[in-house]
């Protein structure tokens, strides 16, 4: 694990951006930039992070940065990595350049998963970071494949027909690990040293790496901006968001939660789940708790920690 003394003082993701107060993406980007090991190119898909950090003529990025379309972050990152590899082969470039792609859950779980799958299958040496705020927040809080069961969004509104989104969250890391990549992991900004350690590890592997990090969104989650890190920690402490990594196919649990808090404690502060606390919808909280328990059992079994 990294320590505070090891982190550089220099800020390569500067303040002054237009991200909302309490936005997890800004914290995640800043932490990521603390883990760099040398020359870096950041590829940023259209989304909250891109829109708010590069209001022309200003930018918060202190590294080479490129904005691309919503769906092709992995494709562009793969192309940049291949270009530097070709230049090194021809003797036109000597330095190792790390390529990091940032995209939200909409651009990763859904419309970008084909590009991501292709890049992973081809074995491009880059790091893909999904900052998961659990909906298409930048375009109006529509549900995504990462939106949890029961959450109210503009396309899964809670009402008399459905109590929020009917489906459950997609297993992104399971999908990525199934490609046989050298490194994949989950993370939470509430555990900064775990996250920064994983970014460094992901940059050092030879081949593609994926980190799925939970990104609290006060606007879409209907939460107090001051509570973002508290909620990111509660997600882990309730076992809603297990923290683990997969190195060359081997699962390892990074944060053990021997005495979990009820998932209700994670749901209650969030306005997107307010309707679940009505008498007619309380059974959905039980369904979510059941899913959390089953998912934790599945992950710990994979990690050999049943």
Tell me what you see in this structure.
Helices cover 35% and strands 14% of the residues. With 306 residues, the protein is α/β, with parallel strands linked by helices. The chain has one domain: Thiamin diphosphate (ThDP)-binding fold, Pyr/PP domains (Rossmann fold), CATH 3.40.50. Helix 2 (48-53) links the parallel strand 1 (40-45) and strand 2. Helix 3 (73-89) runs parallel beside helix 5. The longest helix has 21 residues, at 282-302. It is globular.
Pairing-aware structural class of the strands and helices? Answer: alpha/beta
- For this structure, what is the CATH class? Alpha Beta
CATH H level: which superfamily? Thiamin diphosphate (ThDP)-binding fold, Pyr/PP domains
Percent in strands: 5-15%
Architecture blueprint of SSEs:
Blueprint: H1 24-33, E1 40-45, H2 48-53, E2 64-68, H3 73-89, E3 98-104, H4 106-110, H5 113-122, E4 127-132, H6 172-177, E5 183-187, H7 192-204, E6 209-214, H8 218-221, H9 228-237, E7 244-247, E8 250-253, H10 264-267, H11 282-302
Parallel strand pairs: 1-2, 1-3, 3-4, 4-6, 5-6
Antiparallel strand pairs: 5-7, 7-8
Helix pairs in contact: 3-5
């Amino acid at each position: 694990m990294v320590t505070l003394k090891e982190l550089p003082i220099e800020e390569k993701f500067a303040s002054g951006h237009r991200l909302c107060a309490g936005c997890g993406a800004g914290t995640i980007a800043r932490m990521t930039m603390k883990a760099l090991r040398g020359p870096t190119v950041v590829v940023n898909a259209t989304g909250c992070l891109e829109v708010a950090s590069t209001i022309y003529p200003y930018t918060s990025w202190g590294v080479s940065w490129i904005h691309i379309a919503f769906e092709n972050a992995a494709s562009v990152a793969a192309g940049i990595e291949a270009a530097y590899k070709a230049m090194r082969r021809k003797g036109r470039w000597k330095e190792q350049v790390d390529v990091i792609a940032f995209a939200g859950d909409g651009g990763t779980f859904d419309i970008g998963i084909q590009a991501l799958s292709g890049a992973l299958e081809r074995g491009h040496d880059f790091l893909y970071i999904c900052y998961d705020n659990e909906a298409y927040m930048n375009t109006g809080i529509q549900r995504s494949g990462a939106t949890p069961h029961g959450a109210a969004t503009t396309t899964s509104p809670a009402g008399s027909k459905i109590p929020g989104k009917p489906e459950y969250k997609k297993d992104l890391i399971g999908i990525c690990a199934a490609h046989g990549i050298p490194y994949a992991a989950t993370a939470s900004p509430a555990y900064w040293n775990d996250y920064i350690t994983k970014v460094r590890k992901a940059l050092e592997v030879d081949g593609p790496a994926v980190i799925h990090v939970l990104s609290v969104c006060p606007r879409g989650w209907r939460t107090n901006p001051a509570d973002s890190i508290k909620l990111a920690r509660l997600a882990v402490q309730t076992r809603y968001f297990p923290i683990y990594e997969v190195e060359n196919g081997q699962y390892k649990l990074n944060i053990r939660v021997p005495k979990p808090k009820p998932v209700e404690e994670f749901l209650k502060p969030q306005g997107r789940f307010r309707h679940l606390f009505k008498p007619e919808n309380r059974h959905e909280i039980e369904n979510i708790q059941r899913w959390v328990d089953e998912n934790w059992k599945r992950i710990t079994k994979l990690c050999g920690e049943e």
